[in-house]
Amino acid sequence: MTIMKEKNSVKIVLLFLSVLFLTLYQIGSCLADNYEHVYYFYIHTNSGWEGHKLYVSLTPSLYSYYGGKIGETGFALFVTPDAFRSVAEDIMSLCEYKPRSDEQFANAVLMIVHQIPYRPNPFRYPVVTLTNNMGDCDTLSYLAASILKAGGIDVVLLYYEGMGHMNVGVYLPYEPTYNNPEANATYQEYSGKKYYVAECTSEGMNVLDDWKVGDCPAEFAGTKPRIITLENCEKVSPGRISSNLDSPLKDSSIEMAISSTSLSFGESATINGSVSPRFTGKQVTIFISHTGFSWSVLETLTTDSEGEYSFVWNPLMRGSCYLRASWSGDAEYAGAESETLYFTVSFGQMGAVSIASLSYLLISILVLGVALFFLSIYRTMFR
């Protein structure tokens, strides 16, 4: 009986320690992956509708940056064309030499946006909408407007104040032809231009049969919306969504290191690293966070001929923070980000160490403590 109890106790101890170690190992060692998704859309050609796939990828840092931005007021500020410039360029490359290229481009954007499920979304920035794969009328409209404006389209937001609804208006110098043939194209006139309605929520049908530019849901027909122009939209983004047509993006990586692991207030540290493959002239963004959740831009750098970057950082305040480097990718490679480093500015007691190193230290302490605890129980039961 005593032997059986001893064996069961040992099994319990080993099982507990195994679960604890695996859990903490995953917390300490895993790095967040890029958000990746594939959308499909169609371009009309002389032989009919031609299907394409759009592969998109964005780094966790870009998501965290926009997810942590709060307190913004004004609809136009949530339109972020620079972040979607690569997406717009890919789609436009298929449309620019086609008849009615602006209309085709706008309809392709709507096809992509219509694939995102309709759900209430408290986060308004389009990068977050894309990452979370959900949005409502206003967040989907910000997303569509961002891609459209990045593609050079004159676009406005249409806000139906009394009905709590939003869609976008797309300026075309001609009347749309791909909209519902059984209804006249709906538009709003502003400053002598016709902005045709583009409904960003989906009817839940095949993308080819869903809303096109000029289609307006019946409940909003005849309603005069408030027209919101986009002069005040975001001009520059700290990163971009990488994309590619009809084939997946290749993987890349980025590394970052800090020169000193023990920094006192008033001292400086060199932050350097490299992108692989060794790209020249690529933008690298160093993000900083004091909470680990909300991130802001510390510095924007450009890689040299060896694919490397470097700068000297002079912290302006004491305390701890997290640092990571990110590059957005390009038309061939998905972006990447470095391991997150934990950094303190104090009186030289602690410097920059990796989150993984801290986690392994925590694992060792906890495992040792648990082992001693169960050992004491074991000795009490079987001595």
Output the keywords.
elongated, seven-stranded mixed β-sheet, 7 helices, about 30% strand, C8orf32 fold, about 375 residues, 3 domains, S-adenosyl-L-methionine-dependent methyltransferases, single chain
Short description:
The protein is an alpha+beta fold. It has helices at about 1-30, 60-65, 85-95, 100-115, 125-130, 135-150, 355-380; strands spanning about 35-45, 50-60, 155-160, 165-170, 185-190, 195-200, 225-230, 240-245, 255-260, 265, 270-275, 285-290, 295-300, 310-315, 320-330, 335, 340-345, 355.
| Major sheet details | 7 strands, mixed
**CATH architecture tag of the largest domain:** Roll
Poorly predicted runs are 1-31
Number of strands: 18
Q: Supply the number of structural domains.
A: 3
What is the CATH top level name of the largest domain?
Answer: Alpha Beta
Topology:
Layout: H1 2-29, E1 35-45, E2 48-58, H2 60-67, H3 85-95, H4 101-113, H5 126-132, H6 137-150, E3 155-160, E4 165-171, E5 187-190, E6 193-198, E7 226-228, E8 242-245, E9 253-258, E10 263-264, E11 269-276, E12 283-289, E13 296-302, E14 308-313, E15 319-329, E16 334-337, E17 341-346, E18 353-354, H7 355-382
Parallel strand pairs: 10-17
Antiparallel strand pairs: 1-2, 2-8, 3-4, 3-7, 4-6, 5-6, 9-11, 11-14, 12-13, 12-15, 15-16, 15-17, 17-18
Helix pairs in contact: 1-7, 3-4, 3-6, 4-6, 5-6
